[in-house]
Amino acid sequence: MQNEGRGDDSLTPFPPLPSPLGRLAELAQNIWWSWNADARELFRRLDAALWRETRHNPVRLLQEISPERLEEAAHDRELLRLYETVIAAFDRALMGRESWCSLAHPDLASGLVGFFSAEYGLHNSLPLYAGGLGVLAGDIAKEASDLGIPMVGIGFMYPQGYFRQRVNAEGRQEEVYEQIDRARVPVERVMANDGGLLSVPLAFPDRVVHVAAWRVRIGCTTIYLLDTDIDENAPWDRQLTGRLYGGDQNVRILQEIVLGIGGVRLLRALELGPTVWHGNEGHTAFMMLERAREHLEAGLGFDEAVEIVRANTIFTTHTPVSAGHDAFPFSVVESQLSHIDGFGRWLDAERARLLGLASHDAGGGAAFNMTVLAMRLSGRVNAVSRRHGEVSRAMWAPLWPGIPADRIPIRAITNGVHVPTWIGPMADRMHRSRLGETWMEHHDDPALWTRADAIPDEILWQMRRDQKAGLFQYLRDRTRGRWSEDRIDPGQTVAFGSLFDREAFTIAFARRFATYKRADLILRDPERLRRIVTNPRRPVQIVFAGKAHPADEHGKQLLQSVYHAARDPAFAGRIAVLEDYDMHAAHWLVEGVDLWLNNPRAPLEASGTSGMKAGVNGVPSLSILDGWWVEGFDGGNGWAFGDPAGTEPAPAGDPAADARDAEALYHALETVVVPLFYQRTADGIPRAWLRVVRHAIQTITPAFSARRMMKEYVAQMYVPALRAVAGEVSGPRTA
Fold it and tell me: Quick check: 735 pLDDT over 60?
């Protein structure tokens, strides 16, 4: 019998709840509420002001709401009707009867997928993510719940999460690390059946590190977040899981050992036995190595152990640059693994073959490459877009010597976004009214979206205006807060968007501030940009958002250059920087701007998902033909610029390539995009623009949804892995 351990709710104290609202605490502790519109509305109606103050965190809301307000709510008939509706939907979601997976793939429905990821973007109250990789992992967990795919996740409970960003008066990024108060977020300690803390030991060369866990519930999906911040560990080991992507290479390899080996051992301690294992990026590769060790300990030979692991292991690679894959000196790996149960004996007996599983020379000499280890121990490997598949097959061709590039077994499953999470409330309301109350259940069906042709332009335009009004209110509130709390100077309030005009055409560039994403491409010709944004008849404004990695000085300089432009009077307050870009801010941006801009140096965009979120909300993209946009752009749902790239990127900082792309970007804005937005009929409606908006919604929502993506993972990866375990061939080997 599977044993999930006993949950200890003592760390999440709630006040006594009136009996008519007795299950509010249970609801708040399951992140399912975050993608159910009625559940969000229920918490908002309890106390709208407190809901805003807590940044939509129902755990905090229930802890801080007054007893008098709860009693009043318990006698509000309309609120109680909403409560009953939400609880009924919650129960249906948790029961999972007649789910898509149980009907379409009953064998998988009776098994378990073990999903490993170094980060998860679930909700802004749990900052356990740095960017797209983590948000994708969160969307996978949510969609698995919606489809009834049995999934258990393994990740980290970073007590300091990822940093909060502040931009100072000089435009420099300042990183602020805040301790997560785990009593005020939807997590619970995992306890053993005897009432003590459940933990698993990992022996290292000079000490033992104990790994505990926290449980977070995402509908029917459970994620266990590993944690070394417990009394049994030395102070320096308590910090091992302290921050996302913090520390040097030695800390990184220890974190990856905790994630992979510790994660497998935690699942064993919980008596949870995945039938399919899925590693999300190379950080997870030790999960595969640990399972191979288990088979060796059971008496199998090296080759047989490797083949059994490969049979039911899936690996997703996200990084199209060789230097972006973790690689460690062999001596470091051998030193760290040699003292962990079983690995010392394996290293003694099979040192060359074990280390050889990960051996790869990316140009600086052979090293222990985590992505190579994952590929060699996985029967099925996928990239995250068709273009990324081409790039990955070219990059990793040496692992399959003699096999033509088009036959290298790295397939492509293009990323998608969890539509219930990312759809704006106004768009959802419009779809409920015009497509039917159950539209969300069928959102991956292209046939549903033909009915959107009948949505009147007036209704579509009003939806877009309402979502834009929400964004501008958010920007004003953020700027007012910085003004009143931190006493920033007037120039900073301008840089943060205080002069923005809700009627002006508004562009968002919201990406990580990494050099290859080229946040400053649109700033390349300041005079030309000035003419575009200050045109009195067709004004344009641009909001930039994103964080630079703390160690990326070039990324920080990019952010600073954007900030200086935002403060430059020549741009008349039409450029702004939105600080501390996170999931909460992302919701407002993808719903409220008019255009989504993306201009990476091709082909370095593996997929990208922010433009998908924008498109779902009727925000067209203007993008380089790279990543997902290569297959998403159809000529009528947005715009493309620049030349499609091959599998090799232009040299970093290539001025000729940047100049060509900047010219193409300016030309598209000046001659096509901006004029189309301002082309109005007599009633003031931009009907030609709305044709693009409507087509973006119709084409992007079904094709780039997490629902489509997860159905592809099931059909192409998970179910074949189950069949491979039953005796079928697991796939071509790597060298």
Answer: no
